[in-house]
């Protein structure tokens, strides 16, 4: 999807902030939070809750080993991003001034392969070339952990992971036949499978729940800001949390909002793809969290560390202060 076209759709709702506090949101142009952010702006929920959300879409390329959104936050050019909490722990352990203050959802992906693939489940990965955005990507870490736990092998050793560097590059790698399958992020999976000839072999969200050993939804990605922003603008973060709760309720209840999202933000204005993404988003999103939720996230991390090892995660612990939940205001 053309980044400029999506940004123009957002800019149509970037009215004057007035004297409201501003929160600079920087999100990937092909990530699922853009659906929620566009709708929040479209409905004016940021202003309704007393703040101004400035949304700019950026590339999903890597900068110095970090995703672009992480680099923007750490460089002081953003106040709000989303990444998975394993990456948050890794960057915070290395001294990054970042903190998770609200959940987003189970933002994992799925293994996608040609329809005639010989890969039917996790047990079949050995001997195949598997495309990943990067080897420290959460999808690959989760797959490695599940293979080690349930099938007794590590696909990082028995298969060949091939790094694409971006989600766009990952899809191109699949189309060009450079790999046997890819671990693509969930919002992009329907665009690939609905247009064929590809299928989703398995969703990584099943792995999350299986490893977490709970029926409760465990958020993998959270909204982040800097410690300094949260300290100075706690009320702004709380206002965002309230607006987020409202927009999630609307996106769960109102199919019509998704018709506009499909038109403005998706690569293919195809009703079947829009419907698949809509239902996937509703199954993925986490509206709020509490101490029990965070305990579950920490338990999942410990399970991943014990199975895949600290080297696979890139960090051996969740540093103190990584999670600082705020109450909606």
TrEMBL record:
**What is the protein name for this chain?**
ABC-type transport system periplasmic substrate-binding protein
Q: List, for all copies, the residue spans of the domain called SsuA/THI5-like.
A: 64-246
Region (Disordered) residue ranges read 1-21
Residue ranges annotated as compositionally biased, kind Basic and acidic residues, are: 8-21
**InterPro entries to which the protein is assigned, alphabetical:** SsuA/THI5
Recorded superkingdom: Archaea
Species the sequence originates in: Natronomonas moolapensis (strain DSM 18674 / CECT 7526 / JCM 14361 / 8.8.11)
Listed Pfam families: NMT1
